[in-house]
Amino acid sequence: MFESARNSINANHAWSESRGELTEKKQPVSESPPVTGNRVTAKKKRKRKKRQESEKSSVSAPQLLCPEETLSVHGRKEKSGNGSEPIVRGIFQIGKKSHDVILTATRVTWTRIQPESPTGESSHKKPIEDFVELKDVFAVKVKRRRSAGQQSGGTLLGITLFFCKRKGAKLKDDTIHLDNLSVDHCEIWFKHLKDILSGFKHRPKSLKVFVNPISHKKDAYQIYKDRVAPLFKLADVQTDVTVTERKGHALSILMECSLDEYDGVVCVGGDGSVAEVVQGLLLRAQMDAERDTLSAFTPVPASLPLGVIPAGSANVVACSVHGVKHPVTAALHIILGHRQPVDVCSLSSMGVLQQFGFCVMVGFGGQALAVAERLNWIPPTQRHELALITALAQLRPEDCELSFIPSSTEKSDHTQSELEEHLSDVEDADWQVRRGLYLSLTITSIPCLCSVAPKGLAPFTRLNNNSMALTAVANTSRSEFIKHLKRYSSSNNPFSFSFVEVQRVRAVKLRPCSHRDDQRRDSKHTPIIPSEGTLTWNVDGELLEAQGEVLIRVHPKLLELFGTDVEEAEEPPVNCSCI
Ligand SMILES: Nc1ncnc2c1ncn2[C@@H]1O[C@H](COP(=O)(O)OP(=O)(O)OP(=O)(O)O)[C@@H](O)[C@H]1O
């Protein structure tokens, strides 16, 4: 019955949506659905007339029922019930069959009209009913038949609804064609559908889009042009696209441009590009709120939600809010205005804010990224594998003092600002302190789902549970460490090792130590003594050298992402071939 929106666009069908165009060339009003077929016998004609009369008596097309009920989705009080009262009802052809179609404030429902049996008895079979929820409909267009090259006008065929259907975590666009040649009929339906759709105020109408042309396989622009831009156009979302020319380009635009005209920002690229746009949105919010980022401060949330179209290699942020690496899913979440507040962490060194992010690593994660940066002349996939192998070969523990404030605040009655104030107060809190050799420390504020870790990098982080997950991997043998890493992509628990400690925390402090008890050292376990106390951090895939003590804090719901809360990535698990 359905065909994909983009597949169904052909030379002879065109969609428009102005009411002007609907009435521009009136078609002869027909109260019955169009009938296809060349030869209609007199008997068939009589039968059809009889059927049409019986249909007309029950559902003449169109019937206006209770138009004020549409007010319910416009934020005003519903007059009665739950929006299930019919607004308008009529007959359309769907596929090749006549259907009784009903529009309510929340859905379009259609039921096949049962033909009478030759004996005049009506069928005892229960009519098949189907429906689409209007919250999933993202466009309604007038459907016309146009000859090749014809730009406007054309024969009215009916109206088409473009909607989103779900298969697991994946969203796909689909269409339902409501065919009827009557202009009056279509006009009434079109108007009501448009009114209802314009009542979904959380859907963006204008977006600032950043595309990183060098992400991963260098196909981000193509992905945007072929798979995302046509959907934005169909949904009448205005876009202002910047193809970034250098690192820092998106950040500098976000710090300067007027954001008032946009309802959201979209980033097409990998996690590095997302990190830059997140940084831009949050720094801009602090600048507009006159927050002093050179001191310990309580940040304000970003003013616009962010949509992430995955075009990188791991796509951790996209997978965490979509469950899949699928540009169409990401685009539909944006168009339908699905918003998910997310916790963000900030990393400060010597009291000065260095970066906002979702996933902060030091030790193995930082060392592997540093190697990858040095190998940037190698294509991305080979580079990441080679960097992993090199970092594993050079595996050395970091000698650190690790402190953290455990968190128990999963649910809270505090307001957003009270919660932020409470969590920002790290001075008077009870810090737990550990001193030791660590192979890897990972702190995440979101689950960080991806194909190499479908269940995420941490056992209990949610997108907005007001806390971060700290995974501390103490010094162990290389083979045990590899066993731990491999478990991320398998069904075994990567945290059930004696050398792995996981904590739910609201703040973490890490101080590199340069003196160790010499007794504990041997050639294998010689720790990295950071030069002048500098550690190499990996913040969302970007390298950061930070001197001295580093403080990482969680900031609940500091940003909204277009997407939803997902339990697990539905990407097929990928085992790293090199370990
Ligand atoms: N035109 C450009 N030239 C060079 N670098 C750019 C350009 N535009 C953006 N960047 C930078 O490229 C960096 C990497 O981007 P991104 O993460 O999207 O790609 P990737 O590293 O290939 O993907 P992944 O992180 O998934 O492996 C980002 O830091 C971004 O700021």
TrEMBL record:
GO terms for biological process: sphingolipid metabolic process. It comes from the Eukaryota. InterPro entries: ATP-NAD_kinase_N, CERK_C, CERK_PH, Diacylglycerol_kinase_cat_dom, Lipid_Phosphate_FormReg, NAD/diacylglycerol_kinase_sf. Residues 202-351 form the DAGKc domain. One of its GO terms (cellular component) is membrane. Residues 1-85 are annotated as: Disordered. Residues 16-28 have a biased composition (Basic and acidic residues). It holds the Pfam family CERK_C. Residues 1-15, 29-39 have a biased composition (Polar residues). GO terms for molecular function: lipid kinase activity. Residues 41-51 have a biased composition (Basic residues). This is DAGKc domain-containing protein.
